[in-house]
Amino acid sequence: MLGFLWPGAAVHLLPLAEGFIKLIKMMLAPIVFCFVINGILHAGDLKTAGRVALKTILYFEAITTIALLIGVVVTFQLKPGTGMNVDLSRLDPRSIQSFVGNVSHATDVKGFLLNIIPSTFLSAFAKGDILQVLLLAVLFGCAIQLTGKKGRPVGALIESVSDVLFRIVGLIVRLSPLGVFGAVAFTVGNFGFGTIQQLGQLVLTYYAACALFLFVVLGLVMRICGLNLLKFIIYLKSEVLIALGSSSSDAVMPMVMAKLQHLGIKETTVGLVIPTGYTFNLDGFSIWLTCATIFIAQATNTPLDSGTLALILAVSLLTSKGAHGIPGSATVVLAATLTAIPSIPVIGIALILSVDKLMGFFRVALNLIGNCVGAVAIGAWEGQLDLARARRVLNGEDIFQAKEIDMSSLERRA
């Protein structure tokens, strides 16, 4: 309402959203570090943690490929860009310079892999790089396990620190309404509802592809696990709405990890699956990547034969893995994808800049839901999901209390 009626005032409320997200992000690195270590220590043996990690990567690769395929098929069939006949000479190349300049971050596979290794132990925490923190946590947790009796006091200390960190997050979460208010007001005030009309077909096509993936693919995964997808989304509604409003799944990672553990998924699975999924399982992003690529090809009258479609799929499977943590990641990775497909002009990115934010809301929300469903799937696959408890929780018989966000440690001690 504020963004629509008083856009001039609404655009100045962005600091509310930025401040809330920064408060959450400052807690992510230490929380992931402690949570993953606790998961390894409670796994019983290192083989269990390794098996969970391997199954997580296999599951995410399969699901990401399906998401990319859905984006390709839906956009190719609905043809939202056909008939636009865009004159490339009228597009301003300056509008995409900042994104194209960062393409190397998304295409350099060697650099991506080496970047997982931090320069120093503390630099990973200083940068807030989740993959680097995850690597350190796995090494640290394994070392404590191998140390035996001498390592137990360190493990107990980390568990106590984890309880304190989750209590801090519980306090920060109280500010989420202000953060979401600022984000939505800014977006509506700055971009307006008129942008939907300009490229409405692309937006609707993307929403259709997301709905197909959500209710068919993820719905089937949840059914195989013995749970209901809609009840699961309702259980996570607060986190999904915060992600929608703030356009950041980082803002809800700690709460999601606590809720999934309350659902009945073992700490080992939650601690490994969720942080890994933030890099390797971007379902909403994957669908958007192929939708946007094919839309640009259609709008610029670029022929799309089976070879080009296969190339789009193969390139997107690689570039989508480097998205998290790059400034302007969605557009940067799209630029990287188009750079690797010579027949589609990179300048076509300028066509979708005006509606990227509108698709970004659902992109982030679907990423979040996909990762949470992944945790359920891996938990069920590994036998680390208490199905009876999960059903009670989803039926509202065992309610999660946000003010008791550190209750997981109390349950372990009990």
Q: What are the secondary-structure elements, in order, as H or E?
A: HHHHHHHHHHHHHHHHHHHHHHH
CATH H level, superfamily name:
Sodium:dicarboxylate symporter
Q: In percent terms, what proportion of residues is strand? A: under 5%
Main β sheet profile: none
The tally of structural domains comes to 1
Helix content: over 70%
Helices, by number, come to 23
Tell me what the CATH architecture is. Orthogonal Bundle
Cα-to-Cα separation, first versus last residue:
48 Å
Point out poorly predicted stretches: 102-107, 403-411
Provide the residue-averaged pLDDT.
78
CATH fold annotation: Proton glutamate symport protein
| CATH class membership | Mainly Alpha
Radius of gyration (Å): 22 Å
Structural class estimated from helices and strands: mainly alpha
The count of DSSP E runs of length 2 or more, i.e. the number of strands, is 0
Structural shape: globular
Layout of helices and strands:
Elements: H1 2-5, H2 7-10, H3 14-41, H4 46-78, H5 97-100, H6 103-107, H7 109-115, H8 123-127, H9 130-147, H10 152-173, H11 176-191, H12 194-198, H13 200-225, H14 229-235, H15 237-246, H16 253-263, H17 267-280, H18 283-299, H19 306-319, H20 329-339, H21 356-382, H22 387-394, H23 407-413
